[in-house]
Specification:
alpha+beta, Fumarylacetoacetate hydrolase, domain 2, 17% helix
Length: 286
């Protein structure tokens, strides 16, 4: 199943015919009072809603994809976890270009570990990347995004995929400079998820997905997840050994070689096997 959020926080099921509005099912989610949960209620309850979503989507007339504004398929991730230099050729690329590392110590992922991005940086494919600090280089990074479906703590790689709700395309926009990664990667709009969430039952093997990103029609990155240093299973094992993963938490698995600058006026086109494609505009922040 492909699940999206669109327009004014509406919920949709995506089929070949278009988007089927299933927003009327949202009141079935548990009501929460303060303090609010640290997980995404929709993602946590997807298994319970699955049958109703399928039934309601068949009764809802499809809307053309071109006529809607896609939001992030995950509304309330508790954490956005990112994997640095998780492709060997990208590590070589960063080490070879001073404008990418700015003298920072760059380690392979086994030594660098993971880092967190601000959840306030999250947008969807129908929204725009709003660049800040235009006097510095802002880069695109495309990667597979993993959405956690149920709590995971000290999970083994062998059981890791049992905790996945689904997958999206992720864009990790980055300001180059000497500061810590999480600081340079967390401005508003610098994390894009989309175009929708493909549930794990439709994508049983995330280890062989080809993907790419083009800027104004020029292919910049073109790779396959089989080149990941740490695959999805190993990333979940590593992350869950440090903190509990909750439904809706997002893991950005790392970007391959070919990162490059983006500027106001650019149009990014990202695609990934078995997930889909998304077009994202870049503007200057007001």
């Amino acid at each position: 199943m492909r699940i999206c959020r669109f327009d004014d926080n509406r919920l949709g099921v995506v089929t070949e015919k278009g988007i089927h509005d299933v927003t009327e099912l949202l009141p079935q989610l548990p009501a929460w009072t303060y303090p609010l949960p640290v997980f995404d209620p929709l993602v946590e309850n997807l298994p319970k809603l699955r049958s109703a979503l399928e039934q309601q989507s068949k009764q809802s007339a499809p809307k053309p994809l071109k006529g809607v504004r896609l939001l992030s398929p995950v509304a309330n991730p508790g954490k956005i976890i990112a994997a640095p230099v998780n492709y060997k050729k990208h590590l070589e690329e960063v080490l070879a270009q001073k404008e990418l590392h700015h003298g920072n110590l760059i380690n392979e992922i086994h030594r660098a570990g993971l880092f967190l991005k601000a959840t306030s940086s999250l947008i969807g494919a129908g929204q725009r990347i709003e660049l800040v600090h235009l006097d510095r280089r802002n880069d695109h990074e495309v990667e597979l995004a993993v959405v956690i479906g149920k709590p995971a703590r000290n999970v083994s790689a062998a059981n890791a995929l049992d905790h996945v709700a689904g997958y999206c395309i992720g864009l990790d926009i980055t300001i180059r400079g000497p500061e810590e990664r999480s600081f340079r990667k967390s401005p508003d709009t610098y994390t894009v998820l989309g175009p929708w969430l493909v549930t794990a039952d439709e994508l049983d093997d995330p280890s062989r997905l080809s993907f790419s990103i083009a800027v104004n029609g020029e292919i910049r990155q073109d790779a396959n997840t089989d080149d990941l240093v740490l695959g999805v299973k190993e990333l979940i094992e590593l992350a869950s050994s440090f903190y509990t993963l909750h439904p809706g938490d997002v893991i950005l698995t790392g970007t391959p070689q070919g990162v490059g600058p983006v500027r106001p006026g650019d149009v990014l086109f990202a695609r990934m096997d078995r997930i889909g494609e998304m077009r994202v505009e870049v503007v200057a922040a007001k």
